[in-house]
Automatic annotation (TrEMBL):
Entry annotated with the keyword Nucleotide-binding: no
Protein name, as recorded: Flagellar biosynthesis protein FlhA
Compartments where located: Cell membrane
The family this protein is said to belong to: Belongs to the FHIPEP (flagella/HR/invasion proteins export pore) family.
Mode of membrane association: Multi-pass membrane protein
Alphabetical list of Gene3D superfamilies matching this protein: FHIPEP family, domain 1 (3.40.30.60), FHIPEP family, domain 3 (1.10.8.540), FHIPEP family, domain 4 (3.40.50.12790)
Keywords, sorted A to Z: Cell membrane, Cell projection, Cilium, Flagellum, Membrane, Transmembrane, Transmembrane helix
Biological source species: Azospirillum formosense
Species classification: Bacteria, Pseudomonadati, Pseudomonadota, Alphaproteobacteria, Rhodospirillales
InterPro entries listed in its UniProt record: FHIPEP_1 (IPR042194), FHIPEP_3 (IPR042193), FHIPEP_4 (IPR042196), T3SS_FHIPEP (IPR001712)
Top-level taxon of the source organism: Bacteria
């Protein structure tokens, strides 16, 4: 009856990736081990083990990634070839089989290993089949992090926090927040790809907020302000600045006026036509910046941030929404535009 949290099912043509990978490419199992280490370092929790299974119902070169037994993604790969993509997005001049890269849906080509040097020389990105699967797995795990952080995992994170923080834990859990409540705060952070590795700071934030409110949303928002340095650091571009798009005063007011209720019962009651206008203008603004090679952060006031984010994540899940309270005083910012 036990459920596999993460399962990778391979068609029989791909079993060679586990047993005898080609020269110069990595063994899939080793790459997945490396991935678990990498995610623990980046995100702060150890992802569950990945169960690898052969599935004879699949086409020979196909694979499926399941999260809690439900399909989260699938792809089709050529085990003895290499996948080539052009980071600039231009047409590629190499003999091979045209395809679509499974993780981000980019155009790509499967080439024979003999063309590797030529592809690298032309500035293309060249990836071996195992890496295609591992990359897909990484993104799906990051998308499903909140689901994978169970009650048991949360308890484990607390148990593993070093000795000097045990007093802090004793003060906060369960007197100010239950393990389940803390789990929901951490899930909220992970849902926006905020690392929970600095658990001590998160607990301090929870402790401060819990004396004022029982609302998990408001506690999460307060914790985010405590993690301002980390959130800013995660969103700086190669120039060392955070590119921002701000929300106009009209939209700020429209959102603030559409909030009804208190605490966790607070809801957004904006007319669907008005929401559609908002979605269209966010889309247009961000697509314009994307064409110029920028991926800006959307900046809002603290009160409405969670509500703006809940709308933006439906059509642009990768867009980061920050409130003014999360901009660290030492962070360098650059405003690119307004919605």
């Amino acid at each position: 009856m036990a459920i596999d949290l993460i399962r990778l099912e391979l068609g029989y043509g791909l079993l060679s990736l586990i047993n005898q990978p080609q020269a110069g490419s990595h063994r899939l199992t080793d790459q997945i081990k490396g991935l678990r280490r990498q995610i623990a370092g980046e995100v702060g929790f150890v992802m569950p083990a990945v169960r690898i299974q052969d599935n004879l119902q699949l086409p020979p070169n196909a694979y499926i990634i399941r999260v809690k037994e439900i399909e989260a993604g699938r792809g089709d790969i050529r085990p003895n070839m290499l996948l080539v993509m052009d980071p600039r997005g231009e047409a590629m001049s190499l003999p091979g089989e045209q395809t679509v890269e499974p993780t981000f849906g980019l155009p790509a080509i499967w080439i024979e290993p003999g063309y590797r040097e030529e592809a690298l020389f032309k500035g293309y990105t060249v990836v071996d089949p195992s890496t295609v699967i591992t990359t897909h797995l990484t993104e799906l795990i990051k998308d499903n992090m909140p689901e994978l952080l169970s009650f048991t995992e949360t308890q484990k994170l607390l148990d593993e926090l070093d000795k000097e923080h045990q007093k802090l834990i004793a003060d906060v859990v369960p007197a100010q927040i239950t393990v389940g409540g803390l789990q929901r705060v951490l899930q909220n952070l992970l849902a926006e790809r905020v690392s929970v590795r600095d658990l001590a700071t998160i607990l301090e934030g929870v402790s401060e907020a819990a004396s004022q409110t029982r609302s998990i949303t408001q506690i999460t928002e307060h914790v985010r302000t405590r993690l301002a340095r980390q959130i800013c650091d995660a969103n700086i571009n190669e120039m060392g600045v955070i590119p921002l798009v701000t929300l106009s005063p009209e939209w700020e007011q429209a959102f603030a006026e559409s909030l009804v209720g208190d605490g966790d019962d607070r809801q957004l009651t904006m007319a669907p036509s008005r929401l559609q206008q908002f979605i269209t203008s966010v889309r247009q603004t961000f697509e314009r910046h994307a064409m110029m090679g920028e991926t800006p952060v959307l900046l809002t006031s603290p009160l409405i941030r969670p509500f703006v984010r809940s709308i933006v994540e439906r059509f642009r899940p990768a867009t980061v929404v920050m409130s003014q309270n999360e901009i660290h005083p030492k962070a360098r910012i650059k405003t690119l535009g307004q919605i």
